[in-house]
Design goal:
By secondary structure, the protein is α+β, with helices and mostly antiparallel strands. The chain is 43% helix and 21% strand.
């Protein structure tokens, strides 16, 4: 392993959701673009957080070892044995069976430490005080909701307890599927980064909400393609509700309603969109030629005129 390494003094959580099998890692740091260094994951394999005086190779090498059947503990033990700088490292791993392994080197800058629980580990270094990681662990245990929400609540608790002694700068979250789908684009369920921000956790929460909204849009498209109209419209409605500032979401909901012949309902949705973003009128008029809107010119003119 290399002897020169980047800094990423930070706090993070790695976890496997026992109800879904999803695995995730979330991190915050006062270091630019922490998401390019700390979080690693692979569907059906495991999750890694490598931090402190970061040795990034713990990520891909740890995943490689877990991919061939090593437990998280076996993978971490093997990598530490090869690392002359292990006293400066802080690394945590969770494998696809929920086994947890974590190491905090003796030379990690205080306050530094970790706490493990059922299927998860929290770890922190260069913290303002030693209550940060216990607060993170407690928050994860006590929180409800999906894995993304629980990971975020853990980070928020760490920040509320004092966080990084230097302050805040970047954050990231990565969640992978419980099994390899064979489609690489589907294996990463969430992969979001805040590279540089005065309140990165607030921004990360906003991005997670947007991610959920677009997930509902995609679900709506899937329901529509299978002929489940009611479920499609409900998914589109929930997407628009989660992100009312993104006017494109209700725009496509209204397009679907036009296709269904529900013109009056579509017009009521189009009205505020066209008022705020007039260019969306022009976009609507281009859709029939692309086969993305099924209506005659008279109906299209009616929509454009009445809105």
């Amino acid at each position: 392993m290399q002897t020169r390494f980047p800094f990423a003094h930070t706090f993070s959580i790695v976890a496997r959701d026992p109800s879904t099998g999803e695995m995730g890692v979330a991190v915050q740091s006062h270091w630019f673009s922490v998401g390019t260094l700390v979080p690693w994951g692979e569907a059906g394999v495991g999750i890694v957080a490598t931090q402190s005086m970061v040795e990034p190779s713990y990520g891909p090498l740890g995943l490689k070892m877990m991919r061939v059947g090593k437990t998280a503990n076996q993978a971490l033990t093997g990598l530490l044995a090869l690392d002359s700088g292990k006293d400066l490292r802080q690394v945590a791993m969770v494998d696809c069976k929920g086994n947890v392994a974590v190491h905090t080197g003796d030379r990690c800058i205080k306050f530094a430490g970790h706490e493990c629980g059922e299927g998860f580990s929290v770890q922190a270094n260069m913290m303002a005080n030693p209550t940060v990681w216990p607060a993170m662990a407690q928050a994860y245990r006590d929180s409800a909701g999906n894995l993304a929400e629980r990971l975020l609540r853990s980070l928020e608790a760490g920040q509320a307890a004092g966080g990084d002694i230097r302050g805040m700068q970047s954050a990231a979250i990565l969640i992978v599927a419980p099994a390899n789908t064979g489609r690489s684009w589907s294996n990463r369920l969430i992969d979001l980064r805040v590279e540089d921000h005065s309140t990165p956790l607030l921004e990360l929460r906003r991005l997670i909400c947007l991610h959920q909204a677009y997930d509902f849009m995609n679900m709506g498209d899937d329901f529509l393609s299978s002929g489940n109209i009611d479920s499609a419209l409900e998914s589109y409605r929930r997407a628009a509700e989660l992100a009312p500032e993104i006017l494109e979401l209700p725009f496509w909901q209204a397009v679907t309603m036009v296709d269904l012949g529900r013109i009056d309902e579509a017009i009521e949705i189009f009205k505020p969109i066209f008022l705020t973003q007039p260019d969306m009128r022009a976009l609507l008029q281009r859709l029939p030629a692309a086969g993305l809107l099924s209506c005659d010119q008279i109906t299209l003119n009616k929509i454009i005129t009445l809105t």
